[in-house]
Design a protein that fits this description.
Layout (H helix, E strand, L loop, with lengths): L3 H4 L6 E2 L5 H5 L9 H7 L1 H13 L4 E3 L7 H4 L5 H16 L4 E6 L14 H17 L4 E7 L2 H14 L4 E5 L12 H11 L3 E5 L4 H11 L7 E4 L5 E4 L2 E4 L3 H8 L7 E4 L7 H10 L16 E4 L4 E4 L6 E7 L5 H8 L4 H13 L3 E4 L8 H15 L4 E4 L3 H8 L7 E5 L5 H12 L3 E3 L11 H17 L7 E4 L11 H14 L4 E2 L12 H15 L3 E4 L4 H13 L7 H7 L22 H7 L5 H10 L4 H21 L5 H18 L13 E6 L7 H12 L3 E4 L6 H11 L3 E5 L8 H11 L5 E5 L5 H7 L3 E3 L2 H12 L1
Parallel strand pairs: 1-10, 2-3, 3-4, 4-5, 5-6, 6-7, 7-10, 13-14, 13-20, 14-15, 15-16, 16-17, 17-18, 18-19, 21-22, 21-23, 23-24, 24-25
Antiparallel strand pairs: 8-9, 11-12
């Protein structure tokens, strides 16, 4: 078999194959039928498609397993056997001439807290699929068309657990974000932390539009690039979906990705063997040269929706220290009872004060850290985008916490304690989690810089032997108090300077320096200024300390890391000595004080108490709905449109409102003159995707609609019959695939033939305004917030 990992190091740009959905449909695949299961029945058709792409010049063939996971295949199918069969079929065609990539697409099910699956469960789902792909003879594993960072991370982890094949990860983006709020750059950062072999983008748009996304990725992209654009955007002609970007133009435009560092280039929806033939011809003279990132970072910590680069020429970051029960009776009591309200409030306070990363420590008496640390981490990730730093002396707690994160959380810390590096280091590498290296080994504290650097070098060699990349390592300078060790500050500065020479980012627990002395904030702020000058990348402290934040803001200007002093001017234009500026002490935020605020903040655990308080004060149930719940969810919608909120926050706020509404619903007057508008929702026949529809249903319910959800794969006649039976003025249709979107026209036609007055609104990733006009629908929406607005307009 050919060696794909070796090919990654040569100077060739490899053409991938193209789309299979529309190609197979043109060769007999019935609309709405699973291409995977149909492929089992018609292996000769799949074999011919592979052969045609190979004849067209494709150097990599993709298995017919995009929907080859258990949730997609359904019950009664042996997942491993199916994937083994499809991989062997592609291998048979490819022989030893071209490579075979095992396709792994989305499952259609979210990971908690947005969905029912744990991350480990999702990894196990993918392991069953990837095992078959590896056994069937694939040369690499290809995660493609993913829209959730946690899910594509699960594919990588699963692949690493069952085989040693190279891994390609490819996401799809619209409007600069994935469906669940991941930017192209955060995707790149997280995948590079995981050490994947190729990072790419596919679907969603044609070559010219995807180039804009690749530009965003290029800021820190060091890994070879993979690109598979569509043949333009889908259009409807004569009742059929067509892609109008022809082979020659597609080949010419797509070949330009080679100049942007692409190692593999192919086609997605609407492309055919002719498109790949044209692309291959344009790539004949292309050579691979890995582009250098415009602004590399020694380390990047990520959440699902945010990247925080550390070191190099990036600004220093504050790691907020407040979520730690030591000395905090209220937080300790809540953690002992399994509650997180105080911790969530502390998180919000620190983020508002300028923390770029949140340290999370639940270590207290009568607390099971291995249960509580992942629980609090999930609660924080659900509400905030700020990346986390998992802090515990117990390895089992760190391990449990790491298995809950969709991104690359920081681990605090790995020391020279016997067995700690061996246990946590490989797990951090496997899950792509950076960690703080604490230079302590044995019982003696290393006081001098030379002693610390000796321990650091020894731990670095140990990490190298375990295969842990340097991009995952940040060094703690180990702050000791100057009241007992006068040389402590100088030793820290020497360690920071040396680590900067080695290309390693640094951090420190800043406040230790002043313990036992007066004017501690003065000492801390001065020491911070000196450390920033030495090259300090981050520090663990209370971001509500005005002097510290002032020193940091001024230091970034003086070190040239605040271009045009933009951040400094924004935060300190009205500064007065001791005020702290906007980057200093923030106004301490308590719990939500109104039902509306609870909805906006997604305070699910607080909304019922606020509703009860409102009722006790004599407020009418209708007033709480119309003046609190509905305005709250409308504000959330506006934040979503402005990209201040993303899907996780949108869903959390929607669930918060639903919880409040369920309490009020029995109290609402049954004889009220207000009639809820009714809407029939369905995913059209042949389409088994319903994530988007379910989100729309939740939002519509929260805005006062009565939703009749018919589910997925619903025939047009059933949708029309339901609208007639229910007397619904609205019908909402969803389709994710270009092969099923044409079924929407059947519904529109049925509504007109039956003489119904129902308005039809449509939505889905493949839907466009021109398609809406072409089929005679009454409107189209790009997301759940837009769908609610449209539904209100159509029923006004």
């Amino acid at each position: 078999m050919p060696d794909f990992r070796k090919a990654l190091t040569d100077g060739r740009v490899y053409p991938y194959d193209g789309g299979y959905g529309t190609l197979l449909q043109s060769r007999g695949l019935p609309a709405g039928t699973s291409p995977e299961l149909w492929g089992l029945q018609e292996p000769d058709v799949i074999r011919a498609a592979h052969a045609d792409y190979m004849a067209g010049g494709a150097a990599v063939l993709t298995t017919n397993t995009f929907g080859g996971s258990a949730p997609k295949l359904g019950e009664g199918v042996d997942v491993t056997d199916f994937n083994r069969t499809m991989a062997a079929l592609a291998r048979e065609v490819a022989g030893d001439s071209v490579f075979v990539s095992g396709a792994v697409g989305p499952t259609g099910v979210f990971v908690e807290p947005m969905g029912p699956l744990t991350f480990r469960e999702l990894v196990d789902i993918f392991k069953a699929q990837i095992t078959g792909l590896a056994q069937g003879g694939c040369d690499l594993i290809k995660a493609e068309t993913h829209f959730d960072l946690a899910e594509i991370k699960a594919v990588v982890v699963a692949a690493r657990e069952v085989c040693d094949l190279p891994v390609l990860t490819s996401m799809t983006f619209e409007g600069g974000q994935s469906l669940t709020g991941t930017s192209p750059l955060t995707f790149v950062d997280t995948m590079q932390n995981l050490g994947v072999d190729l990072i790419g983008i596919n679907c969603s748009a044609g070559p010219e539009q995807i180039m804009e996304t690749v530009e965003l990725m290029a800021e820190r992209l060091e890994t070879p690039l993979h690109v598979q654009p569509n043949a333009g955007l889908p259009e409807l002609e004569g009742g059929e979906t067509v892609f109008k970007l022809g082979p020659e133009e597609f080949g010419k435009l797509s070949s330009k990705f080679a100049e942007m560092g692409a190692k593999t280039i192919g086609g997605c929806c609407g492309t055919t063997p002719d498109h790949i033939r044209a692309l291959s011809e344009h790539l004949e003279s292309a050579s691979f040269s890995r582009n250098q990132p415009r602004r590399p970072a020694p380390m990047v910590v990520t959440s699902r929706g945010l990247s925080v680069p550390l070191g190099g020429d990036y600004p220093s970051q504050v790691i907020g220290e407040r979520i730690n029960p030591t000395g905090k009776e209220d937080l300790t009591a809540e953690l002992q009872s399994g509650q997180f309200n105080r911790a969530l409030a502390m998180a919000e306070e620190q983020i508002d004060a300028g923390a770029g990363i949140l340290d999370v420590n639940v270590g207290a008496a009568m607390v099971e850290e291995a249960e509580l640390l992942p629980g609090l981490s999930k609660a924080l990730a659900e509400r905030f985008q700020t990346p986390l730093c998992l802090d515990s002396t117990k390895p089992e707690a760190i391990e449990a916490g790491l298995w809950t994160s969709p991104g690359s959380p920081l681990v605090n810390s790995i020391s020279g304690e016997p067995g700690r590096m061996e246990r946590l280091g490989p797990l951090c590498a496997k899950l792509g989690s950076p960690f703080i290296l604490l230079p302590i080994k044995g019982k003696k504290l290393p006081v001098t810089a030379a002693e610390r650097l000796e321990v650091i070098e020894e731990l670095l060699r140990q990490a190298d032997d375990l295969g842990i990349p340097r991009r995952l390592i940040m060094v703690d300078a180990l702050v000791l108090t100057v009241s007992s060790k006068p040389e402590a500050a100088k030793a820290c500065l020497e360690v920071v300077q040396k680590c900067r020479e080695w290309g390693l980012p640094t951090t420190m627990g800043l406040s230790n320096i002043s313990f036992g002395l007066p004017a501690r904030e003065l000492l801390n702020a001065t020491f911070l200024s000196m450390s920033l000058g030495a090259g300090l990348s981050s520090y663990i402290a209370n971001p509500s300390s005005g002097p510290l934040m002032e020193a940091r803001a001024a230091g970034e200007v003086l070190l040239g890391r605040d271009p045009g002093a933009e951040s400094f001017i924004a935060g300190y234009a009205d500064w007065k000595p001791g005020s702290g500026g906007s980057g200093g002490a923030a106004v301490k935020k308590a719990k939500a004080t109104t039902v509306r605020e609870a909805v906006v903040r997604g305070a699910r655990d607080e909304v019922l108490d606020l509703v009860e308080s409102g009722l006790e004060e004599g407020r009418e149930p209708f007033a709480l709905v119309n003046e609190e719940l509905i305005p709250g969810i409308m504000e959330v919608g506006e934040k979503y449109e402005r990209k201040e909120y993303f899907l996780p926050q949108l869903m959390l706020s929607a669930e918060t409102m639903q919880k409040g509404f369920e309490r009020l619903e029995p109290l609402l007057e049954k004889d009220s003159a207000e009639v809820k508008p009714k809407i029939i929702l369905a995913t059209v026949e042949g389409d088994i995707h319903d994530i988007g529809k379910n989100i729309v249903a939740l939002m519509l319910k929260n805005h006062g609609f009565t939703v009749v959800d018919l589910g997925k794969d619903v025939p047009a006649e059933d949708i029309v019959a339901a609208a007639k039976r229910e007397g619904a003025p609205l019908i909402g249709l969803s389709a994710l695939m270009t092969t099923t979107m044409v079924r929407m026209e059947d519904v529109v036609k049925g509504v007109r033939d039956e003489g119904l007055e129902a308005k039809v609104l449509i939505g889905g990733a493949v839907i466009t305004e021109s398609f809406c006009e072409r089929i005679g629908a009454d409107g189209w929406a790009t997301d759940a917030v837009a769908a609610v607005k449209l539904a209100k307009q159509l029923t006004a």
